[in-house]
Amino acid sequence: MGEQRFIFGGAATTPSAVRASAAFWIASTFTSWAVPGIITLVRIGMHQAEWGWLELVGVVFGAPFAALQVWAALRLLRGTHWARVVLTLVAVFYVSSAVNNHWSVLPMVSLILAVAGSVLMWQPATNAFFQPQKELSASDQQAGR
Q1: Staple partner for 145: which of 61, 112, 115, 140, CB 3.0–4.6 Å?
Q2: Contact yes or no for 32/90 (Cβ under 8 A)
Q3: Can you tell me the distance from the alpha carbon of 67 to that of 61, in angstroms, rounded to the nearest whole number?
Q4: What does each C-alpha distance from 103 to 4, 17, 78, 93, 108 come to in angstroms?
């Protein structure tokens, strides 16, 4: 079959819309979890804020949620269908986050990136990539089918 190149963590056969979707999802993770976390840590380090229950809850739940989101985005590159479903639910969470934060900048940026990632991963042209692959029987492999 020849040499297979890997682009952005996925095979060269991964549709460009799926690669772009994964990039949007990783960017939305950064804007929704990393940036606010860094800002909070800087404020605590500069003694402008203290560790409270809200910061602790943010770290305890935010880090695993961010890891799940990045992992699902990387699974998109392998054609994993459940990753599309999980990330769609995450996009719904971002809508509620933007509304609850009175449409402030970071939640809106995260929402826009998540919506862009969602639209790209659900395009009709990407559906075939997410279909389960049938295993070829030994006779089909020998016949070249």
Answers
A1: 140
A2: no
A3: 10
A4: 44, 28, 34, 14, 6
